[in-house]
């Protein structure tokens, strides 16, 4: 380690702006691989991290999360320890995990405002201390990164490989979902939204479509903001009946087909007409699944979708508060709920009345095998059962 009195401490900056001296840029890191042919051209830690990150460039949410964890570790290593990432030891990384729980000094590491542009002088790598769950996620991402750098011939070994990785026990049941009576309260709130002005109408139909999409398709918030209406397509089954499907590219860039029930197709047509679009999308259409107010065909952000959902939950909670203590538990659940609860609500509803194999495929919990491409009769049964037993009933 370089003495603090002799080294120049770099400024905190995001990955794309990092500039380090040769002593700490990783070119002479103690854990650099020797005697092997490297598979990447990187000679510094920053370039090696960029080589790892480029693999996730097509998935913005994953890319942003992975970059965040990599740059946090790199900055901490150089600024706090005065050593490159490629010199970190197992013991260093144990200290780093404790640092994640309380990044100090906070004025140096934590942003004063929740959202700050990456190029802003007040940008910091942390928004606050990380919860135990976030700490585990961060170390898991870093473990994957270090293992990849070993395989790429950049690092000699992965210091995190020595850590004890505890297998988390699966929860006995999902608890983050809305019970049927609470879900009905949410629907009543949506139906009571004002529709006097054009803007109010557009907001109402967008909210109704968004909640229909979450519930009837059971998709994730990341899938809402990354997929387009061109994913809807119609296919004739073996009985000659036309059935609509929604192709979704989701977690891990995996693609699955979700039954687009008649209810969902009706809601889609209603929303599209309100937005001045044709009732049904054309093949390959690039219009996002959900649009911002004003009709501009651009993707909404995760936070924007999250705010819409949380606003509806808050309105519902405010309505329930008028009933007094008898609704206190429901109010508390709504205040804790997020968009992902809608996916769990959909899954809970499906699991209560459908074959669990169909629920699994609808939610994309497992990879679809190549054989599934040819077993159309099984797909048709899944569509029919989803159609018959999984309804929104506005």
From TrEMBL:
Please provide the Gene Ontology terms (biological process) for this protein. cell division; chromosome segregation; DNA integration; DNA recombination
State the species of origin. Answer: Novimethylophilus kurashikiensis
Give the main location.
cytoplasm
Q: Which segments constitute the Core-binding (CB) domain?
A: 43-150
What's this protein's name?
Answer: Tyrosine recombinase XerC
Q: Which Pfam families match?
A: Phage_integrase
Q: Quote the InterPro entries the UniProt record gives.
A: CB, DNA_brk_join_enz, Integrase-like_cat_sf, Integrase_catalytic, Integrase_recombinase_N, Tyrosine_recombinase_XerCD
Q: Name one GO molecular function term.
A: DNA binding
GO-annotated cellular components = cytoplasm
Q: What are the leading ranks of the lineage?
A: Bacteria, Pseudomonadati, Pseudomonadota, Betaproteobacteria, Nitrosomonadales
State the compartments where it is located. Cytoplasm
Q: Which Gene3D superfamilies match?
A: 1.10.150.130, Intergrase catalytic core
Q: Boundaries of each Tyr recombinase domain copy?
A: 173-388
Q: Which PROSITE patterns match?
A: CB, TYR_RECOMBINASE
For this UniProt record, give its keywords in alphabetical order, as a comma-separated list.
Answer: Cell cycle, Cell division, Chromosome partition, Cytoplasm, DNA integration, DNA recombination, DNA-binding
């Amino acid at each position: 380690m370089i003495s603090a009195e002799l080294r120049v401490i770099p400024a905190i900056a995001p990955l794309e702006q990092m500039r380090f001296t040769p002593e700490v840029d990783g070119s002479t890191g103690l854990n650099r691989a020797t005697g092997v042919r490297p598979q990447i051209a990187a000679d510094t830690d920053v370039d090696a991290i960029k080589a790892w990150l480029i693999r996730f460039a097509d998935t913005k949410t994953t890319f942003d999360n992975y970059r965040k964890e990599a740059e946090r570790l790199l900055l901490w290593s150089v600024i706090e320890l005065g050593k490159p990432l490629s010199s970190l030891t197992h013991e260093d990384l144990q200290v780093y995990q404790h640092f994640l729980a309380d990044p100090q000094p906070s004025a140096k590491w934590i942003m004063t405002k929740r959202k700050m542009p990456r190029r802003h002088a007040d940008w910091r790598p942390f928004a606050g201390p990380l919860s135990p769950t976030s700490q585990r996620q961060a170390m898991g991402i870093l473990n994957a990164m270090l293992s990849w750098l070993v395989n790429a011939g950049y690092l000699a070994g992965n210091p995190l490989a020595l850590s004890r990785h505890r297998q988390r026990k699966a929860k006995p049941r999902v608890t983050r979902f809305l019970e049927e009576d609470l879900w009905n309260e949410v629907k009543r709130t949506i139906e009571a939204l004002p529709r006097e002005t054009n803007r109010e109408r557009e907001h109402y139909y967008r909210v109704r479509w968004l909640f229909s999409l979450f519930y009837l398709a059971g998709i994730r918030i990341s899938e809402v903001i990354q997929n387009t209406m061109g994913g809807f397509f119609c296919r004739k089954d073996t009985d000659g009946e036309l059935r609509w499907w929604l192709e979704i590219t989701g977690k891990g860039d995996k693609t699955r087909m979700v039954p687009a029930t008649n209810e969902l197709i009706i809601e889609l047509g209603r929303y599209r007409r309100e937005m001045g679009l044709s009732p049904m999308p054309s093949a390959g259409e690039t219009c996002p699944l959900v649009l911002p107010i004003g009709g501009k065909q651009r993707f909404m952000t995760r936070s924007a979708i999250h705010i819409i959902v949380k606003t509806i939950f808050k309105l519902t909670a405010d309505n329930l508060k008028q009933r007094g203590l008898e609704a206190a538990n429901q109010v508390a659940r709504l205040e804790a709920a997020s968009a992902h609860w809608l996916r769990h609500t959909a899954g809970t509803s499906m699991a209560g009345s459908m074959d669990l194999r169909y629920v699994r495929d609808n939610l994309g919990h497992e990879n679809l095998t190549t054989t599934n491409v040819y077993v159309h009769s099984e797909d048709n049964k899944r569509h029919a059962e989803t159609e018959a037993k999984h309804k929104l009933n506005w």
